[in-house]
What we know:
The protein is mainly alpha-helical. It has one domain. It contains 2 helices and no strands.
Amino acid sequence: CGYDQDGSLAKSPTTIDGVLGLSSSTTSLPSQWAKKGLIKNVIGLYIAIHSCMQ
Length: 54
C-alpha cells in the first residue's frame, strides 16, 4: 500500500510492477494466483485527484 505516489508506470522498474501486479510478466504474484484459479486476472486501481493523507 502507498500514498502520494506519482510518475509514469511505463518508466517504473519491473520489480515494482511485479509487486503491484501491474507487470505483464507471468512471474508477478497476481499472475501466478490467476493461473492457479485463486483470483481473476484483473487489476483494480484507484486514482484520486486529492491526497489521501492530510
